[in-house]
Amino acid sequence: MSEPQFTKKQLLSSKTLGFSTDVIEAVLEENKTYTRGQAKRLLSEFLKRKV
Fold it and tell me: How many Cβ atoms from other residues are within 10 Å of residue 19's Cβ?
């Protein structure tokens, strides 16, 4: 069974990801869906990147 997919809007309203809405807004795309694991990985990678 595949993991549920969520839109950016759904993930923004989620309180369980542990990331600020600003980070979610900056990283995730509007017209894509993500599993919870994919979203967490993308958000973590964004926060760990070198500037």
Answer: 19
